[in-house]
Amino acid sequence: xxxxxxxxxxxxxxxxxxxxxxxxxxxLTLPMEFRLVNQNLVLQHWLPLAAMKGNSVKIPREExxxxxxxxxxxxxxxxxxxxxxxxxxxxxLEEEEEEMLAAMEELENIKGLEIH
Length: 116
Fold this sequence. Notes:
The protein is of the alpha+beta class. The protein has a single domain, classed as Roll (SH3 type barrels). It is 33% helix and 40% strand. The chain has 2 helices and 6 strands; from the N terminus they run E-E-E-E-E-E-H-H. Strands 1, 2, 3, 4, 5 and 6 form a 6-stranded antiparallel sheet that branches. Helix 1 runs antiparallel to helix 2. The longest helix is centred in the last third of the chain and has 20 residues.
């Protein structure tokens, strides 16, 4: 599993696991869009994972403007967010969602990050 930052031609910045699946196509697994707002990192679903059958999408390679490797801190932050979101989707329980929100609020307070 290779975690990469992609800048798409439409201007979206996405962090995800990538895999070359066929000539001209790339598979994005658990893609999350991110942006900086007032020095806060905002990480959100790029796709509606709760409504999807799987957690990946294939896109034409030409839709990607460039690829970047995330630093260790951002990669860890992304993996933590993915684990929490995946657990909440799997469980589908309000209690899990509340725990996830509380954990994200705690992370915001510790690192000064904003998560949506």
